[in-house]
UniProtKB/TrEMBL annotation:
PANTHER family: PTHR44489, WD REPEAT DOMAIN 86 (PTHR44489:SF11). The keyword Repeat applies. InterPro entries: WD40/YVTN_repeat-like_dom_sf, WD40_PAC1, WD40_repeat_CS, WD40_repeat_dom_sf, WD40_rpt, WDR86-like. Keywords: Repeat, WD repeat. WD repeats lie at residues 11-43, 93-132, 169-192, 193-234, 235-274, 315-347. This is WDR86 protein. The keyword Membrane does not apply.
Length: 391
């Protein structure tokens, strides 16, 4: 079974729970957003705090980090943009009339979702709202973005002539049990995806395969064709709300309030693994190098062999729920409602897993070679070889 690990560093600078943790695209910095109304910038090189962003009038719900700018959203109804070098607030985006709980940065756009039942689009470089997406009957909890160029054939694009100026689309999930797809340029609703009977908590988009995955408080995950709006599959085995999703190599990982993570093969809908051991809801998960890392309401992070489901390590030390995890340079970062950012060395389990994968590939290679040789023999001998391999 898994053994307990100790953090190599504990960062206690925040005076309130950490609600989100974002890693910059270049991997050099981390951003934490806290209940204390501030965000902090951390270097992955020395694990030191190099920036303290102050200005929000209430707690920060979510944050996003680019290489040169940081973005935070808050219960004070605003979004702020920060310079990561100087810590200066570069822009304040005002317009929402309730808590802003999610933001997404794509191209030159900043998208936001709020308890005011709207999503909005802003110019990243200006304090200007470009579009408002109004139609949900309750709060917008989660966002995704894609371009129609990624999913539509040329003849299908011609049908959307009025949207030629901009082919960007925004996907929103809401507590009104629906998922909506919007044209960014006009704010027009392109699709409303109906089927869930509970709040939509999480979305994962696979644009190249034209698929969208949504997890809900109705205990299900649903797969949708994002061009036609057709519901493709319903994954029903969870016994609690589906809180988080991760998609890797056509394998979908789902974390739930039923204290488990499940792995599904997307192409068939088959559930191929269940990861147990959590004593509370699974709040966050991340796949890395054949290992599934999870954070839970039981204040522990865990590492599982993604293929076998075997628990490899438990990371203990937090006092409250782990809200977010990130991985960089074989270090695991966990952010918790206890206000701490903890850093764990995962080189050992990564190395063991690489050795295991190498061994499995070697065995598979030998099995393949045996199969090739057996075909040179007559049927009787071939059958004997095959029987031996099965045993």
């Amino acid at each position: 079974m898994g053994n307990s690990g100790s953090a190599v560093k504990v960062c206690t600078d925040h005076q309130g729970g950490i609600n989100w943790l974002s890693l910059s695209p270049d991997g050099q910095r981390l951003l934490t957003g806290s209940e204390d109304g501030t965000a902090r910038l951390w270097s992955t090189a020395d694990s030191q705090c190099h920036g303290h962003f102050q200005g929000h009038e209430s707690y920060i719900t979510f944050c996003h980090l680019e290489n040169e700018a940081a973005f935070t959203c808050s219960a004070d109804h605003t979004i702020r943009k920060w310079d990561v070098v100087t810590g200066q607030c570069l822009a304040i985006y005002r317009g929402h009339t309730s808590i802003v709980n999610r933001i997404l940065v794509a191209k030159d756009y900043l998208f936001s979702g709020s308890y005011d039942r709207t999503a909005r689009c802003w110019s990243v470089d200006k304090e200007k709202q470009i579009q408002e997406f109004r139609g949900h009957r309750n709060c917008v909890l989660t966002l995704a973005h894609y371009s129609s160029r990624d999913v539509l054939e040329e003849e299908e694009e011609e049908e959307e002539e009025e949207e030629k100026v901009s082919r960007d689309l925004l996907v929103t999930g809401s507590t009104d049990c629906t998922v909506k797809v919007w044209w960014v340029s006009s704010g027009r609703c392109y699709q409303t995806l109906l089927g869930h009977t509970g709040a939509v908590l999480c979305l994962i988009l696979d644009a190249p395969n034209r698929e969208l995955f949504s997890g809900s408080t109705d205990y299900t995950i649903r797969t949708w064709n994002i061009v036609t709006g057709e519901q493709l599959k319903v994954f029903k085995e969870h016994q609690g709300s589906v809180i988080c999703l991760e998609l890797v190599n056509r394998h979908l990982y789902s974390g739930s309030a039923d204290r488990t993570v499940k792995c599904w093969f997307v192409d068939t809908g088959e559930r191929i693994q269940t990861y147990k051991a959590h004593k509370h809801s699974v709040s966050t998960l991340k796949y890395h190098a054949g290992i599934l890392f999870t954070g839970s309401g039981d204040a522990c992070a865990r590492a599982f062999n993604s293929r076998s489901g075997v628990l490899q390590k438990i990371f203990r030390g937090h006092k409250f729920i782990i809200n977010c995890i990130q991985i960089h340079n074989e270090l695991l970062y966990t952010a918790s409602h206890d206000g701490t950012l903890r850093i764990w060395d995962i080189r050992g389990i990564c190395k063991r897993n690489k050795r295991r994968l190498k061994k499995e590939r070697s065995v598979q290679g030998r099995s393949s070679q045996k199969g090739s040789l057996s075909r040179l023999f007559n049927n009787k001998v071939g059958c004997m070889v095959q029987q031996e391999n099965r045993e």
